[in-house]
Every structure is written in C-alpha cells, then in structure tokens.
Amino acid sequence: MDGRVHTMCPASHINDLLKEPVLDLDVEVRGWVHRTRSSGKIVFDVLRDATGIIQVTIKKGNLPDMEFESAQMSHIESSVIVRGRMFKDDRAPGGYEIRASSFTLVGTSAPYPITEYQSEELLLDNRHLWIRSREQTAIMKVKASLMKGARDWLNSNEFYEVTPPIFTQNACEGGVTLFKLKYFDDQAFLSQSAQMYLEALIFSLEKVYAITPSFRAEKSRTTRHLTEFWHLELEEAWTDSKLNMEIQENLVSAMVAKAVEERSEELKLLGRDVADLKEIVPPFKRVTYAQMIDRLKQKEFEIEWGADLGAAEERAVTEDEKVPTFVTNFPRECKAFYMKEDPDDPKTVKCADLLAPEGYGEIIGGSERETDLAKLLERLEANNIPTEAYQWYLDLRKFGSVPHSGFGLGVERVVRWVCKLEHIRDAVPFPRTVARVYP
RNA sequence: GCCGUCGUAGCUCAGUCGGUAGAGCGUGGGACUGUUAAUCCCAAGGUCAUCGGUUCGAUCCCGAUCGACGGCGCCA
Q1: Higher local confidence (pLDDT), A231 or A177
Q2: Bridge-partner residues for A42, per DSSP?
C-alpha cells in the first residue's frame, strides 16, 4: 500500500495523460462535457476533470450505436466515462485527443444556464455551477496553495495551530458592526476576530495561529469586503512590532512562493505574470504614517496628519510598487484600543498595516499589543467601550503579562491580489456580501 | 449609512419620438465523418420587474416599491 486512498476504478486524470501520453493502450477518463459539437456521424466533446481538458472524438461505427447516440444527446456538463486510444492530433485543442471506443453517460445534464453571454447577476445566482469554470477552478487551486504555503511556513517555524471560538460576547475593536444572534437565553456575536483568544493562548503556547472564518456586519459595498471571510491570525509572545513585521513578510513570501511553485499555469490563465510574484521576497517596504502623509501631499492629496488613509490614498501610494508596503505608526485615534503606544512617539501606536502592491490595498493589520492595564482601561474609556465583556481580556495583563504582537491576514484579500482579481468575491467559492447569501 | 446605474424571450441585448415587440446565443426538429464559442434550414418561446398615476391608449412619460450591480465610508 502506498497510503493513498484510491477511487473506485483505475481511470486517468487528464493532465497526467497530457504530461505522459500513452499512445499504444486504451485509456479511460472520467469527467464532464465542457464543450460539445456534433457533425452527423462524429461528435467532438471537450472533456473536463479536476486537472484539465482534452478533446474526445466519438465516431459512429467505432463504438456501439447506443453509446454514439448518448454522446449525441449529452449536453454540456453531462458526466461521462470515456475509454479509447489517445492520438497526437494538431486539429485537437491541446494537441492530443482520445478516440472513443466506449462512451458511458453517467449523469445527464439539463440545458446549462451559463452560456457564452453572461451577466454578473446570472453568474452569481448560479455560483454553484459557475465554480466549475476554468477561471474559478484556477482561483480555488491557487488559494489552496497559498493556504498550504502559509501552514507549511507556520508549522515549520514552530507556531501552534489553535482553534478559537466563533461565538463570542466581545466586540473586539469596538467600531466594527457584528452579527448578533440569540444564544439560548443569552446574546452572542459571530466572531469578527480571534485575536483576543489568541492573546490568551500565548501564555501557554507562546507562538500561535488560527485560520477561521470572521464575520463583519458592515454594509460595505466594495471590491475588497466580504461579510464572511477567512482570517489567518497570529500572535506571538516576546515579540515587538519590528519582529512582527518580519514574521509577516516571511509568511506572505512563503505563501506566494508556494503558489508560484504549484500553480504557475493557473496564475497565467488568470492573467498574473508569475515574474511579478517572484519579486515578492523579504524585506518589504516600510514607511511611517507621517511619511505617507508627506508623500500624499506631494501627490496633491488634501490630507492632514490625523486623518485615516482612504482607498484612493492607499491606491495612490502602492499602484506602482512591486512588493508590499508596511505603513507603521498610525495616530492613536485611528486605531484600536489594544495597540501599544509608541514610547518614542506617543501620539502614535506600534502598528503596521501591510498594503499589497499594485493598489490592491490592505491585506494585513497588525500591532504590538498594549500590556499596561491602566493604559488599556484609559483607551477603552476614551473609545466608550464598556469593560464588562472584556474582564477576561484585562485579566491577561494581571497574570504574568509579557510583550507580544500579532496580526490578522485576510486570506481572500491575498488571493485577490495574487490572482489579479477585480473583485474579492471571486476569491471565495460562495461569497457572502451585503446583498448575497444565496447560493 | 451615503451617492450612482440598471431591470424587455432560458441567456445577452436592440427597439417603440406613447398605438402591446425583434436579433444573436441556447433549446426542440432536420442536414453534414474533423469541429475549434462549427455551419446551414425550420420551429417553439414574452402580463416588456411590481404597484400606482397621466392618457382614448403606457413596455416607453411620472411616482413609489422590490431586486441587482458599481463607488465612498468602515475594516482583513
């Protein structure tokens, strides 16, 4: 036994056949009809499986008439099993085709709603079918590689993967709108960040991360917001803001490198030049918020110290960049209460937003955390946040508090940037946005 | 929360200066033994988003509602 789990019977995957064509034996492939054309006594099907596509020609006389007729009848997306000999043929897309000696229609398909002309609305209503498309398939494969790259890097750097709760009673930042739900006789929220739970976990494990869904009830209508997204959050004891950024740039680089290693073809299909991604190596750029304001003023933005950076500002300073940029030391008032004040510049906090290049915007928000209980209480009060639900969090500062830092990475935001997607909703198979929870 | 655009056949759209509609694709039938989003012939398919107003008459003009999409703010 090789330890793999085998499927029902020995059929080949299309890309394996294209990589090492077997021209002298019958092969069997299983998949779905991607394109079909018929011309009297010959049917051309382009067959799709999880790995690729190949043309199949079904000629009357080469197989039982019943099977030829089912080939004629099979619509796009019918599932089929085809056996036959593989031939090199320049007339076939991809250069090879299978000439069928057997054609089994496994599952018929009703007329497929997605045709050559498609509106965004139709596609989103049929998202459960649209995800079969080559482009969407490519995105999901890249995403899997990015996540694998992240886990590989984190695990080999001795971070523990932990499992924080999704039901919570604390609103992490104070400003964010949460999904409220009835929790038996109590009230709870869907988590919008696991950060505080990760902070609690560093006291036993020191280096932790979690990959969980996070939920935001903000009515954001933009190309970079989902109401449900996958959040990669990390927290590390004995880590300052500087080391925190080094972890981030190494992690992001490892994710991108894994996608390049495993999914170059898919990235090309999506219009992403892999050469761009090969430049994503540490160190990333670092600028302070104050420097950013100066730079924006030179670009004739009307912005003063103290104002938060908007989408247009972020775009203006990153659209010509090749690597991501950290923006550090935001004014205290722009950021969450738990971020540590910078002793060298107390108007600011030791935070860093990581902005993707090419104007794709923020992909990570991180900071060194405030360890001083009095300062935390002061900041909570200044932000009008009631402290009741935070008692356990404040406790962490009473029992062996240590310097620590962490961050949250928006997985779909990274996918959007790496895959060069116009909209973040294509970075997740079933996007949840303000206007959409179906399908 | 704010601003904007759109809603006509299964799909993508055109159209009617107000007199109840048309194309392409798809579907069904037919032809074709090498197609590349195949081609050719025939056919079926529409309360013109909903409700109300103006009018002899509204799919078209006006208003409201609903739905979708785009942009801003907020954040990952």
Answers
A1: A231
A2: A59
Interface pTM (ipTM) of the complex?
0.86
More confident residue, A325 or A2: A325
Q: What is the pLDDT of residue A224?
A: 93
**List of residues 6+ apart from A167 with CB closer than 8 A:** A181, A183, A188, A189, A190, A191
CA dihedral A79, A82, A87, A89 (to 10 degrees): -30
Contact flag, residue A303 CB and nucleic strand B, below 7 A: no
* Residue A409: domain span: 128-427
Distance B63 C1' – A215 CA (angstroms): 38
Query: What pLDDT score does A175 carry?
Result: 62
Q: Is the CB of A216 under 7 A from strand B?
A: yes
- Do A212 and A253 lie in one domain? The reply is yes
Give the three-state DSSP class for A147: helix
Are residues A85 and A134 both part of a single domain? no
- CA–C1' gap, A231 and B75, in angstroms: 13
Distance CA A176 to C1' B13 in A:
42
Average pLDDT of the segment spanning A360-374:
95
Q: Is the CB of A375 under 7 A from strand B?
A: no
Q: Assign residue A276 the CATH number of its domain.
A: 3.30.930.10
> Measuring CA to CA, which residue among A378, A371, A365 is closest to residue A393?
A371
Residue A6 has pLDDT above 60, yes or no: no
Confirm whether any atom of chain B, the nucleic acid strand, is less than 7 Å from CB of A436. yes
Q: Which nucleotides of B are covered by protein (CB under 7 A)?
A: 1-3, 10-13, 24-28, 31-38, 67-76
